[in-house]
Design a protein that fits this description.
Largest sheet: none
Order of helices and strands: HHHHH
Strand content: under 5%
Shape: rod-shaped
Number of helices: 5
Radius of gyration: 40 Å
Length: about 130
């Protein structure tokens, strides 16, 4: 739809609305005219932001910003604690793996602590 077609449809709608308002009784016509004038007066003075609805919009916007900030902070805290937990779990798994390997071996742990054992290992692996 182009702009000319939209304008044509708008003019037809306006004509239909004007035609429909010609049959209104005087009481309904006065109420509609008064409501329109009140709406225009509020619009001209710019007091719409001071109404309760404007306050609700402001509070909702501020609460939304505050909630987003707290949600981001909580998400970062959860992410940091999860990374710490995962790193701690990895370290414990590595220590557990080394302990299992030591316990499964035939040599006593004291042999690994002996300084000469390291020399003997290097010497025997060269042969």
């Amino acid at each position: 739809m182009n702009e000319r077609q939209i304008t044509g449809h708008a003019h037809r709608i306006i004509a239909l609305l004007d035609e429909g308002t010609q049959n209104l009784d005087d009481k309904t016509d006065k109420k509609l005219r008064d409501a329109r004038n009140r709406a225009l007066a509020v619009r001209r003075t710019g007091h719409a932001g001071h109404t309760l609805a404007g306050l609700g919009t402001l509070v909702r916007h501020e609460f939304s910003e505050l909630f987003r900030g707290w949600a981001l902070l909580i998400a970062l805290a959860v992410l940091a604690s999860g990374a710490h937990y995962w790193g701690q779990h990895q370290r414990e798994s590595e220590i557990e793996e080394v302990d299992s390997a030591l316990l499964a071996d035939d040599l006593p742990i004291d042999a690994y602590l002996d300084r000469g054992f390291d020399t003997w290992l290097k010497h025997s692996s060269n042969e």
